[in-house]
Design a protein that fits this description.
It is built from 1 helix and 5 strands, in the order ββαβββ. The protein has about 70 residues and is α+β, with helices and mostly antiparallel strands. It has one domain. The chain has a 3-stranded antiparallel β-sheet with strand order 2-1-5, with helices on one face. Strands 3-4 form a two-stranded antiparallel ribbon. The N and C termini lie far apart (about 45 Å).
Length: about 70
Amino acid sequence: MTLDITVAGKPNNIRFDDHYPRQVRNLMKQVLKEARFTPAIHNGQAVETLNLTFVQNFKARDTHPATDV
């Protein structure tokens, strides 16, 4: 996914590759809307960051662990 970070540190223009399931995209959009980032600094001033690549890895939890018999 890619997103822009405003000078205020807010994520904006969140974009996903199509291979992410809709539920994951919706969840990540909700989470990122609440997130705040430290904006990039250029010549001592906060600047917007465009097309920042953001990677979130998910791991499925084993809901049925093997048991010793």
